[in-house]
Design goal:
alpha+beta; 4-stranded mixed sheet; 3-stranded antiparallel sheet; 8 helices; 9 strands; 45% helix; IucA/IucC-like_C; FhuF/siderophore biosynthesis protein; catalytic activity
Length: 280
Amino acid sequence: MSREANAEQARPRASAPPCAEDVARCRLDIRLPPTLEARFEATTEVAADAGWRAARAVLDDDLERLVEGVRAVRRCASSAVAGSLFVLDYSRRLGWPVLDAHLRRGAWLDPGRHNVRLSPNATGLPQVGFVIGPERGSRRDVGEVVDALVADHLAHLVEAVHRATGVGRRTLWGNVAVALTQVFMAFSWASDDRDRFLTTARQVVADRSPLRGTVLLESVEHRDQEWMVVWRRSCCLAFRTEPAAPRSYCGTCCVLEHGERVASFRRAADRYVEIERSRS
């Protein structure tokens, strides 16, 4: 059973968590699977003499080289495909630690290009670090944190990749939306209420015009619970990698029929439950 993102049709929550509508005040006690947890950890207090370079300089001067690195490693059919995958990965590397600091620690991790350093490597996907680490006692709400990610840093990246590779803005903003809403999905799945942050994620997307309409956020019933899911509304073009391989699509891709996407979600949810059981 699946439901469209619609405030009027949202199911009532008799036992909504105390911070359901104001996650800025939440300090989440959430344990993620170890492999996923590592992707939320921030590298901080990085120094230029340790191989880190200012994000502004790297993205302005070396973007095409980075994209071509992704193209070579992923065997992308074109620079446009590589550019799309670069934005998707970069948005996760930047956005996940920033949102994690806010949601789980009540801290402000500044995502501005002035505070971000990059350590390029042969894959074309640089490691992301921060000059100043999380500052405790932040009074920002989650919308302000998302705005800080989107309005300057990621907006600059989207435009730069669009100009350099020709990949469409909607595709790139869809990648940003997927990357950011996956944080809310990950924290929901790790909660007793598996769609705990669905309402917040919907609001984050709806309130920002570049993200609006690029993803569909739903709740799907599985194992007698409602689980948050993120469906893409634009393809990330990953199917155009490794031309010799059989064509395949991400489990949440808009190219797939809805039933195929739901089946893929159920398999992922079952794997997640098994991981939880193995840790208990």
